Amino acid sequence: MRSKNGKISSGEDKVKPSVLTGVFLISFTLIAFEIALSRLLSVLFSYHYVFAVLSLALLGLGTGGMLVHFITPGLETRQRGFARWGFLYSLAIPFSILLTIQIGYFDFPRIGLLFFGLLLFLPFLFGGALLAEIYRRFSRQSGRVYGLDMIGAGVGSFGAVLLLDVLGGIATHFVLGAIAFAGVLLLAVEEVKKGKRWFLPLFCLLGLSLMFVIKPSDEKFRVTHVGANPAKEIHDAFFTFKGRIIESRWSSFGRTDLVEYANIPDQMDIYLDGTAGSPMYRFSGDTAAPGRSVERLKDEFPGYFPFGSLKEDERDNALIVGPGGGRDILLALMGGIRRVIAVEINKDQVEMVRKYSPFNGGIYAGFSNVEVIIDEGRSFLKRQLEKYDVIMLSLPVTNTSRSLEGYALTESFLLTVESVNDYLDHLTDEGRLIFVGHNDAEILRLLSVSLSELNRRAVNTVSAMQQIYLVGSEEYPVLVMKKTPFDPLEMLAAYNLMIQMGYEQQSSYFPFVGQEGMLNPALADLAKGRVALGEFIRMVGERGYDIRPVSDNSPFFYKFEMGTPRPLLMIFGFSGLSCLIAIFIPLVLSRRRSDAVSFRTLNKSLLLFLLLGTGFMLIEISLIQKFGLFLGHPVLSVAVLLFSILGGAGLGSLLSGRIRLDNLRGGLRLLSILILSAALVYVFLLPVLFSKLLGLGLPTRMLVSFLMLLPISTLLGFPFPMGIRMLKYNELAKSIPWMWGINGMGSVLGSALALIISINLGFTEALLTGASCYSIIFLLFLNRGMKYS
């Protein structure tokens, strides 16, 4: 046993370096597998289904703990427990991916969602069972084990980015299986030394070797999977326009495909994860004689329309956010813009366009007045002092996910009320902000976002509508905005040109053109004050489209459906039901075998670990989103932030071993208050710090982010290992896998809850909800009810 000062007696097993290293590698592969899996699933599914499948899979971690609790309820856990679950885990990673790739995409999304969720559930199930066994065996030293668990996960977030960039989205999973196998061998080193049960590691080694041999090629993955989902843009490219992929690139950002068409020789399309398509045109390299396909853009693509009304002194420079295959750069050059700065977040796309310079006229490489920068557009803009005559954004169709949890979108921070403020601040006095959308819903939400920002600047809606005009089009409607009202004569000329070019009159709006029936009547009513902005938003909502303005605190621009998305509600309900089942069924069984004191202790422990899992994820996801704009690049920022949060939690876990047994109860109370206080400080302090420090270089911002997150992440690492120690010394070690399972299921519940709260209220509110979980823990330990508590 251990005395109250925490020292280990001679009769207790010490956790060996091989075990700690094994835990590090297992956690490394778990988080890296989750990240790599999110990239792979983004090719198959739309972003909300990515979240659903990932959530179903991650429930396996908690279920693994429950499995151990019921299969081996006794305290006698041997090394072969590590081997049994560990080797199955290492084999399940490549096996599940191999089946996913071989089977492909189901025609029925709901069936596919359930199937892939259950298939990918297995690796996490075995991984959760493995870690549950480890925590039960080394419960007295849980601080060291959990510390290496968290640090391994933090390093794994960077490892996933590196592996995806080097190996791509398929081979990465097979390498992770091999790394997991090495980690399991370290965990089972004592059994291997004794020469027992060699058949299991040999079987897994042979299985991994076979899978490396039969690993599907990237070529096989191209059409059978990338184009199989009819909800993806690339599906039409294959099956309607008979396109074919001529080049693909995998990276941590996603899968980028270049598609050519036999019947459309002057155009290629670039797709990210099968969506967010962007055209690349055959271009002569001379804007005076650009070639037939590029020349047609002047008459056929509404995005060129705003350049026709620019005066000579309004053509000095333009900022293009998300130039894709270069179309918007061509529009700006043909529109007489003398200098173009283009900011593209996808490095693979930039390199692909440069590679095909003979086709596109060197639009990214052959013009001295065109500068292409790889960065996140909004983050780049906020660090600039220069002002622009034109800022242009062509909105992508976003059915893809760039985030770990599989829901938040890359483009979200580009299209918020605060982003419009940044764009207006970086325009010259006569500058134009140009948005090109795909449908009326996008343009109407942009209108509500823009009007909300002008209202914040003390410009009422009637006056604000004089600073905006809309060009209606079936495919590419355009919204143009200025810092000051447009000139009435200019708007009359623009209206006449719109009619001449055949754009949709009933979907358009031009200020000062007020004859009845000439323009969209609802927009005309808005401009004349007959309808307030809130009433206009409600009217559109009655037609099934949510166009309420979105903010940086809740940046879900592309959520047009009313209410909370169904896949999100489904996962929240399913994970909540799983938690209830996992709590009450074992609790009823335990009540029959436990005395009243032990049963009260179990109740308190269950609530503790559920709150820890839910609260940790609420805080983690909220902080990742809040730091995302500050760091810029979404994939790199997720890696940095996960490393900071999980690494800091690992440090806190290592330090938790210094807390004496007789101080655990008071320690949990103190830590709960400190975490709550830290969250409140972050809510008010982060916006100020971000504003002051955004101009720093990326490496410095990464270091600053780590230092800012270190205090709260270190605090977050203390409670879990302390709870494990309390179970051990309340003679409830057999329940440790159960509590691990509840904690894991609470994490999935917390992920879903974080997104539900952030969509309906905001990430600040989600952060505060996570902090409130720790305030409940404080109240939970006000009264005694546990030994050493």
- Report the helical percentage: 55-70%
- The number of E-state strands comes to 12
- Mean pLDDT, all residues: 85
Strand proportion, as a percent range, falls in: 5-15%
| Class from helix and strand fractions | alpha/beta
Task: List key phrases describing it.
789 residues; alpha/beta; eight-stranded mixed beta sheet; four-stranded antiparallel beta sheet; 28 helices; 12 strands; 61% helix; globular
Structure description:
This protein is α/β, with parallel strands linked by helices and 789 residues long. The chain is built from 28 helices and twelve strands. The strands form two sheets. The protein has an eight-stranded mixed sheet, sandwiched between helices. A hairpin with a 2-residue loop joins β3 and β4 (275-281). The radius of gyration is 28 Å and the shape is globular. Residues 1-12, 75-79 and 404-411 have low confidence and may be disordered.
Short characterization:
The chain is of the alpha/beta class and 789 residues long.
